[in-house]
Amino acid sequence: MEYQVSAIGVIHTPYATKEKAPIQGHFHPDATGTIEVLAEFAEGLLDIELFSHLVLLYHFDRANDVELVRHPFLDDAPHGIFATRHPCRPNGIGLSIVKFLERKGNLLKVSGIDVLDGTPLLDIKPYVPRFDCFPEASEGWFEGKEKREKPPGRE
Protein backbone atom coordinates (compact mmCIF):
# COMPACT_ATOMS: atom_id res chain seq x y z
CA MET A 1 0.00 0.00 0.00
CA GLU A 2 1.38 3.41 -0.97
CA TYR A 3 0.45 6.82 0.33
CA GLN A 4 1.84 10.10 -0.94
CA VAL A 5 2.12 13.27 1.05
CA SER A 6 3.37 16.71 0.06
CA ALA A 7 5.03 19.35 2.19
CA ILE A 8 2.89 22.28 3.33
CA GLY A 9 5.93 24.35 4.25
CA VAL A 10 9.48 24.33 5.52
CA ILE A 11 11.04 24.52 8.98
CA HIS A 12 13.86 27.01 9.50
CA THR A 13 16.22 26.50 12.46
CA PRO A 14 19.81 27.28 13.44
CA TYR A 15 20.72 23.58 13.01
CA ALA A 16 22.49 23.00 9.69
CA THR A 17 23.82 19.52 10.55
CA LYS A 18 22.58 16.46 12.39
CA GLU A 19 25.44 16.82 14.84
CA LYS A 20 24.26 20.31 15.85
CA ALA A 21 20.57 19.47 16.26
CA PRO A 22 19.50 18.60 19.82
CA ILE A 23 18.16 15.17 20.70
CA GLN A 24 14.87 16.64 21.97
CA GLY A 25 13.52 20.19 21.96
CA HIS A 26 12.52 19.73 25.59
CA PHE A 27 16.21 19.88 26.48
CA HIS A 28 16.58 23.23 24.63
CA PRO A 29 13.45 25.31 25.37
CA ASP A 30 15.14 28.55 24.25
CA ALA A 31 16.05 27.26 20.78
CA THR A 32 13.95 29.23 18.31
CA GLY A 33 12.94 28.58 14.73
CA THR A 34 10.48 29.70 12.10
CA ILE A 35 7.79 27.61 10.50
CA GLU A 36 7.14 28.84 6.96
CA VAL A 37 3.76 27.70 5.69
CA LEU A 38 3.38 27.81 1.90
CA ALA A 39 1.15 30.66 0.71
CA GLU A 40 -1.57 28.33 -0.59
CA PHE A 41 -2.02 26.92 2.94
CA ALA A 42 -1.74 30.19 4.91
CA GLU A 43 -5.52 30.54 5.25
CA GLY A 44 -5.41 27.36 7.35
CA LEU A 45 -3.53 29.28 10.07
CA LEU A 46 -6.72 31.10 11.11
CA ASP A 47 -6.94 31.02 14.95
CA ILE A 48 -3.51 29.39 15.39
CA GLU A 49 -2.65 32.29 17.74
CA LEU A 50 -5.13 30.90 20.26
CA PHE A 51 -2.76 28.04 21.13
CA SER A 52 0.40 28.16 23.22
CA HIS A 53 1.96 25.00 21.73
CA LEU A 54 1.91 23.29 18.35
CA VAL A 55 2.52 19.76 17.14
CA LEU A 56 4.75 19.69 14.05
CA LEU A 57 4.83 16.69 11.75
CA TYR A 58 7.71 16.67 9.31
CA HIS A 59 9.79 14.50 7.01
CA PHE A 60 13.19 13.26 8.17
CA ASP A 61 14.55 14.07 4.72
CA ARG A 62 18.21 13.59 5.68
CA ALA A 63 17.93 10.42 7.75
CA ASN A 64 20.17 7.49 6.94
CA ASP A 65 19.10 3.91 6.21
CA VAL A 66 16.22 2.38 8.14
CA GLU A 67 17.28 0.01 10.90
CA LEU A 68 14.45 -1.77 12.71
CA VAL A 69 16.61 -2.34 15.80
CA ARG A 70 19.17 0.28 16.73
CA HIS A 71 20.94 2.15 19.50
CA PRO A 72 19.00 5.38 20.11
CA PHE A 73 20.64 8.66 21.12
CA LEU A 74 19.60 8.52 24.79
CA ASP A 75 20.51 4.90 25.54
CA ASP A 76 23.37 2.50 24.88
CA ALA A 77 21.13 -0.55 24.57
CA PRO A 78 19.41 -1.40 21.26
CA HIS A 79 15.64 -0.91 20.94
CA GLY A 80 13.08 -1.50 18.21
CA ILE A 81 12.66 1.57 16.01
CA PHE A 82 8.99 1.87 17.03
CA ALA A 83 10.08 2.07 20.70
CA THR A 84 12.29 5.09 19.86
CA ARG A 85 11.98 8.52 18.30
CA HIS A 86 15.02 7.98 16.08
CA PRO A 87 14.86 9.56 12.59
CA CYS A 88 15.85 6.40 10.63
CA ARG A 89 12.29 5.07 10.38
CA PRO A 90 10.37 3.24 7.63
CA ASN A 91 8.29 6.32 6.77
CA GLY A 92 10.64 9.01 8.09
CA ILE A 93 7.94 11.00 9.87
CA GLY A 94 9.06 13.22 12.74
CA LEU A 95 7.00 14.82 15.47
CA SER A 96 7.93 17.76 17.71
CA ILE A 97 5.88 19.78 20.15
CA VAL A 98 7.00 23.41 20.19
CA LYS A 99 5.99 26.57 22.01
CA PHE A 100 4.21 29.01 19.71
CA LEU A 101 5.59 32.54 20.10
CA GLU A 102 4.13 34.69 17.31
CA ARG A 103 2.70 34.77 13.82
CA LYS A 104 3.56 37.12 10.98
CA GLY A 105 1.47 36.17 7.98
CA ASN A 106 2.50 32.67 6.95
CA LEU A 107 5.50 32.61 9.34
CA LEU A 108 5.26 31.13 12.83
CA LYS A 109 8.00 31.76 15.37
CA VAL A 110 8.42 28.85 17.80
CA SER A 111 10.76 27.74 20.57
CA GLY A 112 11.91 24.35 21.81
CA ILE A 113 12.71 23.29 18.24
CA ASP A 114 14.95 20.29 17.52
CA VAL A 115 14.68 20.01 13.73
CA LEU A 116 17.25 20.49 10.96
CA ASP A 117 17.09 23.70 8.95
CA GLY A 118 15.14 23.27 5.71
CA THR A 119 13.12 20.27 6.90
CA PRO A 120 9.88 19.74 4.93
CA LEU A 121 6.80 20.42 7.07
CA LEU A 122 3.98 17.90 6.58
CA ASP A 123 1.35 19.17 9.02
CA ILE A 124 0.64 21.37 12.04
CA LYS A 125 -1.81 20.52 14.78
CA PRO A 126 -2.68 22.43 17.93
CA TYR A 127 -1.38 20.89 21.14
CA VAL A 128 -4.41 20.50 23.42
CA PRO A 129 -3.45 19.39 26.95
CA ARG A 130 -6.91 17.93 27.58
CA PHE A 131 -6.42 15.56 24.64
CA ASP A 132 -2.64 15.25 24.39
CA CYS A 133 -1.32 15.08 27.97
CA PHE A 134 -1.37 11.82 29.92
CA PRO A 135 0.59 12.35 33.16
CA GLU A 136 0.10 8.70 34.16
CA ALA A 137 1.71 7.41 30.93
CA SER A 138 4.75 5.14 31.20
CA GLU A 139 8.03 6.44 29.77
CA GLY A 140 9.28 2.93 28.99
CA TRP A 141 13.05 2.76 28.60
CA PHE A 142 13.18 6.61 28.48
CA GLU A 143 12.51 6.62 32.26
CA GLY A 144 15.37 8.41 34.00
CA LYS A 145 17.26 9.19 30.78
CA GLU A 146 18.80 12.63 31.05
CA LYS A 147 20.10 15.05 28.44
CA ARG A 148 23.40 14.04 26.90
CA GLU A 149 25.39 14.68 23.76
CA LYS A 150 24.69 12.49 20.76
CA PRO A 151 27.03 9.51 20.86
CA PRO A 152 29.33 9.52 17.80
CA GLY A 153 28.41 7.23 14.94
CA ARG A 154 24.78 6.78 15.95
CA GLU A 155 23.34 8.04 12.67
Task: Walk me through what this model shows.
The model has no long low-confidence stretch (mean pLDDT 90). 3% of the residues lie in helices and 30% in strands. The strands form 2 sheets. The protein has a 6-stranded antiparallel beta barrel with strand order 1-2-7-6-3-8. Strands 4-5 form a two-stranded antiparallel sheet. The chain has one domain (9-142): Beta Barrel (Elongation Factor Tu (Ef-tu), domain 3). By secondary structure, it is mainly β. Strand 4 and strand 5 (79-80) form a beta hairpin.
Tell me the layout of helices and strands.
Elements: E1 9-12, E2 32-37, E3 53-59, E4 69-70, E5 79-80, E6 93-104, E7 107-111, E8 119-126, H1 129-132
Antiparallel strand pairs: 1-2, 1-8, 2-7, 3-6, 3-8, 4-5, 6-7
Could you list some keywords that capture this structure?
mainly beta; two-stranded antiparallel sheet; 155 residues; single chain; Elongation Factor Tu (Ef-tu), domain 3
Structure summary:
With 155 residues, this protein is an all-beta fold. The chain has one helix at residues 129-132; strands spanning 9-12, 32-37, 53-59, 69-70, 79-80, 93-104, 107-111, 119-126.
